[in-house]
Amino acid sequence: MNTSFARQRYLMDFTLHSMLRRKGRNLVLFTVYCLVIFILASVMFFGQAIRQEAKTVLADAPEATVQNLVMGRHALINAKWVPVLQNVRGVRHAEGRLWGYYYDTVNGANYTVMVPPSGDAEHQLQPGEVIIGPGIVANRSLIRDKYLFLRANYGEIFRLKVKDRLSSDSALVSADLLLMSEPDFRKFFQLPDDVFTDIGLTIRNAREIPTIIGKIGVRVPGSRVVTRSDILRTYQSIFSWREGLLLALLGASIVAFVIFAFDKAAGLSGEERREIGILKAIGWETSDVLAMKFWEGALVSAGAFLLGLVLAYGHVFFFQAGLLEQVLKGWAVIYPDFHLKPHIEVLQVVTLAFFTVVPYTAATIIPIWRAAVTDPDAVMR
Amino acid sequence: MSIRPSSLMISAMLLLGAAVVALFVHAYSSTDNGLAARARLVGQLGLTDLALFTEARYTRHPSQADLHSAFQDHPMSLDHFPSGSLVSPPRHNFAQPAGVQQ
Known about the structure:
The complex is a heterodimer. Chain A is an alpha+beta fold. Chain A has 13 helices and 13 strands. In chain A, strands 5-6-10-7-9-8 form a six-stranded mixed beta sheet. In chain A, strands 1, 2, 4, 12 and 13 form a five-stranded antiparallel beta sheet that branches. In chain A, a hairpin with a 5-residue loop joins strand 8 (about 145-150) and strand 9 (about 155-165). The longest helix of chain A is centred in the middle third of the chain and has 39 residues, at about 230-265. Chain A is elongated, with a radius of gyration of 31 Å. The two termini of chain A are about 40 Å apart. The relative contact order of chain A is 0.18. The model of chain A has no long low-confidence stretch (mean pLDDT about 85). The model of chain B is unreliable at about 100 (pLDDT under 50). Chain B is built from three helices and no strands. Chain B has helices spanning about 5-30, 35-45, 55-60.
């Protein structure tokens, strides 16, 4: 055991000395390899963490929302459907929801304006009061630190007292949120008293949801039901879509790296061939030559992999994925400044290792094996 | 006596290996960064979507949008917000319409 370990260490020493002779070339390879792992791992960590985040955060989203569709578009729903839905067997509670969008000409941002549901005691508001999200706080100056002036589209100016600010911890879901009382909301958007944006449902037993959707389709014609599982599925596919898009954009650089690495690993230089020939001539066995080259491939790829992984983790979870953020931001003026909960999965790390370290190490071994099994004399010539 | 390169290399590898193990420890033991606060607010207000792209309503609330919302500004209009290429249409819109029993 000890002899074999000592033998491998001597081989490793020899390999490192031989690599040091080609310092520049190996350093470039290591840096590029590390960078590729860093980018791939960053995308992977970010995608996985945000999927996990959406799953946890939206686990309490409404069990089902019923929307009215007119000509295939989302339209206001009449309040007369609330008691109808309340009477569907299996529905515990039906409540009309009021929410919409407001384009703020002052800073060119879009806000989501919403009336807190009646069951939410913490955010109840009197007319003239609002609660604003962290993105609005950061992008809009308040008058005397407590008044928000909004201009309705028919010209009237609303003077609203900021009762509270939502915590910046919740920015991922509430950055652009503006909570308003129902009378203010209806006046601000000139909305009749008998309409809602949609109707939220609380359902007794989640397993009954498909049956309930069937019943709603019959009782409320022209409606569409969005369930919590639809919402969760939407987000899982959005983030997989975006992860895929980023990987597709990175595809060209990954292919370039593969060509570079394969060229470096597979094409033996004349100097390397001569080195193998000399080693064989002075009595090295084929297995020794292979072990030496295995160490070369393994040290470069494992080192680059581990370092790339550590850097990617720091980039995503300590620096909020600064390099990927630009892809996310788009044109949105209000953008949440959020910190993802660190999340890492063994399977993902193993998959990434399998698709990067193994091919590189294999690509180094095969040409060496070919050179090593030939006659030293032929190799040296 | 000079240090053998393999000793340096083994130490570097062990150090990096320990750093990766530390990542797992950090990930599994980290505080929730306000995750509970976000989840609570979602439950209280009945929120449906993440505030990732605020420029258009079909990107702000993708789960509530319909397939046509990206193209509704005028007849034959095309989706003109860049995040439209990053956000896929909600998958449930491709499912069978409500009321149709499977």
